[in-house]
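call fold target=Aryl-alcohol dehydrogenase-like predicted oxidoreductase
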Amino acid sequence: MRYRLLGRTGLRVSELFLGAMTYREASPEVRRIFDRYADAGGNVVDTASMYGESENVVGELLQGRRDRFVLATKYTPTRDRTDLNAAGNHRKNLVLSLEQSLRRLRTDYIDLFWVHVWDRHTPVEETMRALDDVVRSGKVLYAGISDAPAWVVSRANTLAEWRGWTPFAGLQVPYSLLWRDVERELLPMARAYGMSVAAWGVLARGVLSGRYARPGAAASRVSPESISERDRAAVRVVTEVAGELGVTPSQVALAWAVARGVHPIIGASTEEQLTDNLGASDVRLPEEAVRRLEAAAEFELGFPGDFIAQTDASQDLYGDALPRLVGR
């Protein structure tokens, strides 16, 4: 397992994060998954307040080894459907959600506290100030944001920079070879601010694992009949590349995301699946393979990305001396 720094901090985080969304009990299989991930060098466990019993299970699994892990959880969704103030990104829900998560996780601090989704009803400056307060209290070490527009995250981090508050060190988004929308605004924004990016859905609900390409494949998270021809074509290329490299399709899909500078969140349901996913850490995709993979799943950057890329090398726009500009 390799490691990277979390955003512009000194915190070391493993390339692959372990997603605990589906944990309902600390069953023998869940314990084996957790231990296998730890033995491989993985150190980030990602959960959320809205994931049912997940926080309680993670808290139990961490007993006796809490400080060796980077524990990440999220807040925003409701704690009580009958109370309007029991949801959102305002200070009251932030504080009460954090206290609830600390109890469930059996810890006195959260390493990475994610805003789960943008709450358009709460000014972002209130959220950032409240996050800074819980960081200063020692109950949270770092902050991140999930599922939000690039302009919101950019405004939030600019406010933090100007006012001396804790900025977002991480961004969490859906991302896969089949779903590359975040390349338009969110990934460039994260790079500009030096943010780490964690990605869910990297295997596209199992489609990129190739499981639905087998004859007679049964429906699971996806109905085989619902998979588009575009996605089927991409899966065929993923499978071809996997065969050429002697690895599995899942490992190719995960390695592609890692090569894009992203931390895949792996949510394996069995130890066997996890072992296969962890193997992506050792996969290096040749440039030619990356080109084939990306060409197989049509994706248009759209405006303004495509327009700017076309005009960036325009001498009509920047003058005849443009070719002498180094590093453009």
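return ok
Residues 3-320 form a domain with the TIM Barrel fold (CATH 3.20.20.100). The first strand starts at residue 3 and ends at 5.
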